[in-house]
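Severity: low
Component: inverse-folding endpoint
Summary: output formatting inconsistent between runs
Steps to reproduce: submit the following structure tokens with default settings.
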């Protein structure tokens, strides 16, 4: 049941009712009401649910709501994938010597041969990644 899901998620997160109420900016009484199955507003549920990391979806009647945590996991996955792609890109391009005028950066004139080669490499890497399909790593 919904109230059990919230209580179990709060306990799994190691939060007291008072601490969860403080973080959600609701009264402790609202947490108590929610966990005992009493009526609370959807606004209260929306404030509390994102603070419980292992509560990814809730169902109210026939309405299913995804909490912010499921989106956060997707953002983490994509950030890690981006980090891996950037690491491979840096490796593929090799080290670029810094310009004496700019600390740590090197600029190629727009339309230069280096810029075109870099763009072609990037396009190949992107195309390979697209062919691999969606990532399933966490």
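Observed output (run 2 of 3):
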């Amino acid at each position: 049941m919904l109230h059990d899901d919230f209580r179990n998620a709060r306990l799994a997160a190691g939060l007291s009712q008072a601490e969860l109420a403080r973080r959600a900016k609701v009264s402790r009484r609202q947490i108590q009401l929610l966990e005992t199955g009493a009526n609370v507003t959807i606004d209260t549920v929306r404030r509390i649910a994102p603070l419980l990391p292992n509560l990814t979806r809730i169902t109210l009647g026939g309405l299913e709501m995804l909490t912010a945590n499921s989106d956060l996991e997707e953002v983490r996955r994509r950030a890690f994938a981006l980090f891996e792609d950037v690491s491979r890109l840096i490796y593929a391009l090799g080290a670029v010597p810094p310009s004496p005028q700019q600390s740590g950066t090197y600029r190629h004139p727009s339309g230069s041969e280096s810029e075109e080669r870099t763009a072609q490499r990037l396009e190949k890497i992107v195309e390979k990644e697209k062919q691999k399909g969606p990532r399933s790593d966490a």
